[in-house]
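Reader question, answered in our methods column.
A reader sent in the components of a multi-part assembly and asked whether the whole thing could be modeled at once rather than chain by chain. We filled in our standard form and ran it. Here is what they sent:
COMPLEX SIZE: two components
ENTRIES:
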Amino acid sequence: MSTPGQFTAFTRLLHWLMAAMVLTMLFVGVGMVSTVSTRYHPLLAVHRPLGIAILVLVVIRLINRLLNPGPALPAHLNSLERFAARASQVVLYALMMLMPLVGWAMLSAARYPIVLFAGIHLPPILPHEPMLYALLRRTHTVLAYVLFATFLAHFGAALMHALIYRDGVFASMAPWRKAGPGYTAPHQSR
Amino acid sequence: MCDRSKFILIGAAVAAVALAFGYVGGWLTPRRLSPQRLIDAFEAANGPHPGFRRNHAKGVCVTGFFDGNGAGAQYSKALVFAAGRVPVVGRFALAGGQPFAADTAGAVRSLALRFTLPDGEEWRTGMNAIPVFPLRTPRAFYEQLVASRPDPLTGKPDAGRMAEFLAQHPETARALKIIGSQVNSTGFANSRYNSLDAFRLVAATGAVSSVRWAMVPNEPFAPDDPADAGARAKNYLFDALITALQHEPLQWHLMITIAQPGDPTDDATVAWPLERPQLDVGTLTIEHAEGEDQGACRDINFDPLVLPVGIEPSDDPLLSARSAAYSRSFTRRVAETKPPSAVRP
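And here is the structure of the entire assembly that came back:
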């Protein structure tokens, strides 16, 4: 159930669940590649199943988005802001989809066993080709930084909507039920 | 709250997340030992050898199979310990980052194996023909690599720096004494290869045992004769292995040593008491050798933490470090153009 001007409860649940998972994943990833401590192996063991879980959820989320597009952007945004909002969403969706696929593909190309949990393996999705592994491994890193930068922009924009504009955009995805009607004009405080 | 303080608040929140990311990624703690730094230290100590493994650089691929006899199944549910045969790809090598160094009797011999188990599982293990490992932690390993870096003036490691390192690491001095007292065998075929690190075996009942394992040769031990050292070919150890395999397969028994309470599982510099029972769990048969430029082992990273269900890492701090560093070495070498290896059967 949702209030007018708010994404459905299921959409909001997916959003916040994935926000936590993706942020966790970025920290796990950057942490594990920069340590030789005993944290390395447990982090790697979490990284693979969490990545595949994100891949599954992003597919569900894309389908859900097609079925429930949610409220339109508020009228007061200028064309640049509209473009930024749309483009950052496209980039976030694309990266949430690509990161696990590139990770799965690179392990496939290096013929590492792709262990999710004890005894549960994924099949390789690419032929055994070490040069391809090297390329995909670098791609995985670059895309992770792009994803983190896009996350920061998204996080900053969300806070701008919540605290400065107070135009209902943040409330439309807020984990709690929105009290008021649809979008409101940007709040004018001086 | 005015808009200006809200802007500051938002900026601070975004910056805090970015800083936390930077901290976890190690940019704020330059002393942290990363896999990159460890592999850089190998490259600095050995010189650049593009395309080669950064350690155990000189080697040859082998293929064969392992026949489990079922005796290990009471300790581990890993399929490798069930009675039956699984294919094996392996690599004999000499420790160190010099791919073209001449073979010597004193060079540390190693055997790395990949067992391909049913259901897509694998077991990868790297073993060395020394009784204990000289270094206890990744940090000590790194410091030892830095201490053994050649002096730019003499081209040789500075003996003073190594002496200083040993003074700070009595466990390494003790381990080197044990290693030095071992009588070298004549070759790869009659060497015993030890896991050195401890692992945990998990039985179907859930019972956990701490273990170390070894590949013990069927070939009888024959001591190396130092009097012959002058007349040896550059690849004499590898040549002898290749010649032996051309005549007949070579065999080793996989022996599992079960720890007793008090045996250290987090310190590979310390040997477990000799009287610990050893369980023969199967026979490794090596049939063929092939050059690593084309051979099946070329593209395998013998990461000791690629383990099947039923074998788990112990608390040995070297295991995660080996896994992380091997991965970095693999990622670098497969992107490089490699000149032909020294050993070409």
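What stands out: The mean pLDDT of chain A is 90. The domain at 9-173 of chain A is CATH 1.20.950 (Fumarate Reductase Cytochrome B subunit).
Send us your own complexes using the same form.
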